[in-house]
Design a protein that fits this description.
single chain; 162 residues; alpha+beta
Length: 162
Amino acid sequence: MKSMKVFFLTVAVVILPFASQAQVATAEIDLAARLVETPEPDAPLLDTALVITNLRRTPAKVVLVGYDRAGNQVGRARREVPGHGLVYVLASELTDANRFLGKVEAVGRGRLTGTAVLLGGSGTDLPAISTTHRIGTCSEDEVDANIGIETVITYPVAVAIH
């Protein structure tokens, strides 16, 4: 129990500088509850929290797509990330299968960044690769408003085992 609290505090220290306290509070409380609560009988033994942080003040919509080891699509999720806020999706939410081991790609408009944390027993950071680029021919005003910017976040490893 103590190691889970230390782990959560470590996650909070890494994530909080990227988002405002007010908008992070709900996600922080929800993720904290998942880390310290007694797991339900059908809850995954091992899961991955895929965290998306919005670095700008305008909200951003994100689509996450999970792929299995063979490269086949296994599930998708949509989220809206508040300005200067964050959201997370559990890998287990992307598939109904008992086991999921593959990659997840998240695509959204705006300046976003991703982190991933393996949950179960103790937490471990996993790699996430964020690439931001301009879309088509957009003006500087559109870039400033996040309209002309797209971010692709690749989580090379995502795990959910029931």
